[in-house]
Design brief:
Blueprint: E1 2-9, E2 12-19, H1 21-35, H2 51-82, E3 91-94, E4 105-112, E5 126-131, H3 136-149, E6 152-155, E7 167-176, E8 179-192, E9 214-220, E10 234-248, H4 254-259, H5 265-299, H6 306-324, H7 340-362, H8 369-380, H9 387-395, H10 398-420, E11 422-427, H11 430-442
Helix pairs in contact: 1-2, 3-5, 5-11, 6-7, 7-10, 8-10
Length: 445
């Protein structure tokens, strides 16, 4: 086998690999000899089929396998000896299209190798960690939100008309073409007006009703309604208003605390403070991570594989285009051109991605099976009732696994850097942290 370099320009590499006919024939014979003991053929005992007959019967198929194995072996040996790591899958193609058995095999191989990434003295990196303590006003605000979500309803004054947001208790009977239909009737049904829990247009027609009123609600079932016999049909609901109640936030007391699983109000306040500080901590980490990435981006410069930058720029342009055109789903849209801005952002992302990957590789940072399982379980909760199917889907999908593994790996590398860097804590108010987070969102990358 002969390997000749044809391109050495920046990170681009090209090679011509020649596998001689003799080498191919030897490889084919090896594979046939390996398979011979298990081959059965009419007229011969198992394992006794002559090699000449085996070659005639299976030679073409084995030749293809031998060719692929020879090329793969040559590439593996090349990467081992050269130390090159391809940025993307190498492009491999056979150059002698008129090849026939007995000819040498000529193969062209091209790829972009990953660059040499310089070492960074992480101990010289200086970072600031914003620390926010939950203040009484923050806790009170959170408790007020809990109370509002746990709202009760009190009867309005006699004769009061219902308003949007009120709860009305109704008896109703639904009819289509003058006939009642299954599931279209109920008694003492509590309905919050504006909750959109009924057919579109239903609740709005009950706004302004009083206790004792009989209201005829006219609506059309949606064309895509789940019950096919009702889909797109006009319906009339005869409604009797039995109660009109206005929303009233629950009182902030021990009773409210018990609704949220706490022993008393003091315990609930402690839980709320802990949750708030965990949220503040997450926001603070995001700010600190951005500062770290900015520092690394300033410290390290190296040549980037053009293919990675081009692919990343295209992805950024595509994502931003869809954000600006949210009504367009799928990929049925005009070709999206990348700009210098997209390319600049792509270069930063590729540079930092390669740097963090190299730090993780050199320091043997890996995502454990337990961490992956936990991540899959967390995401599976977004699909109630289909958790098992989601879990199995991820297990069988390597690309999905990589998409989930990448951010976990990055966070572990970032945490490793935080441990080595000089990090000073700075206690600030909630408003200062919010301002820092807003700055991140305005300059998202």
């Amino acid at each position: 086998m002969k390997v000749t370099e044809t391109l050495n320009e920046g990170l681009k590499r090209g090679y011509n690999i020649v596998v001689t006919a003799a080498e191919m024939d030897e490889k084919v014979n090896e594979k046939l000899l390996e398979a011979q003991p298990e081959v059965e053929m009419k007229g011969f005992r198992k394992g006794k089929v002559p090699m000449a007959l085996l070659k005639k019967q299976f030679g073409d198929k084995v030749m293809g396998e031998a060719m692929q194995e020879s090329i793969d072996g040559a590439m593996s040996k090349h990467f081992e000896e050269s130390g090159d790591r391809p940025a993307m899958q190498p492009e491999i193609k056979m150059t002698n299209d008129d090849w026939k058995p007995g000819d040498d095999v000529d193969v062209s191989v091209s790829y972009e190798k990953l660059p040499e990434i310089p070492e960074v003295d992480l101990k010289k990196i200086k970072l600031e960690k914003l620390v926010v303590k939950a203040e009484d006003k923050d806790i009170d605000e959170a408790l007020s939100n809990l109370a509002e979500n746990a709202q009760n309803f009190d009867d309005r004054k006699k004769g009061s008309k219902s308003k949007d947001g009120d709860q009305v208790t109704i008896d109703f009977l639904g009819k289509v073409d003058g006939e009642p239909f299954e599931g279209g009737a109920a008694e003492d049904y509590p309905l919050v007006l504006g909750s959109n829990s009924f057919i579109p247009g239903f609740e709005a027609q009950l706004v302004g009703a009083k206790v004792g009123d009989d209201v005829e609600v006219n609506v059309d079932f949606p064309a895509e309604y789940q019950a096919e016999h009702l889909a797109g049909k006009a319906a009339v609901f005869e409604c009797k208003i039995k109660a009109v109640k206005e929303p009233k936030a629950a009182e902030i007391n021990d009773e409210l605390a018990k609704q949220f699983g706490a022993e008393d109000l003091a315990s609930l306040k402690t839980q709320v403070a802990e949750r708030l500080e965990a949220e503040f901590g997450g926001a603070s980490r995001a700010v600190q991570k951005r500062k770290l990435l900015d520092e690394l981006d300033k410290l390290v410069k190296f040549e980037l594989p053009p293919s990675l930058v081009e692919a990343e720029a295209g992805q950024i342009a595509h994502q931003l285009w869809h954000e600006e055109n949210p009504d367009v789903e799928g990929h049925d849209h005009p070709e999206i051109e990348t700009t210098d801005e997209h390319k600049g952002l792509a270069e930063r992302r590729v540079r930092l991605g390669l740097l963090l990957a190299e730090m993780g590789r050199k320091n043997e940072i890996e995502v454990t099976d337990a961490e992956m399982t936990q991540a899959i379980m967390n995401q599976a909760r977004q699909y109630p009732g289909q958790e098992r199917q989601f879990f199995e889907f991820v297990q069988q999908n390597q690309q999905m696994q990589q998409q989930m593994r990448a951010p976990i790996f990055e966070d572990k590398v970032v945490d490793y850097v935080f441990e080595l860097a000089e990090v000073k804590e700075k206690i600030v108010k909630k408003a200062a942290l919010e301002k820092a987070v807003e700055a991140l969102e305005d300059d998202a990358s």
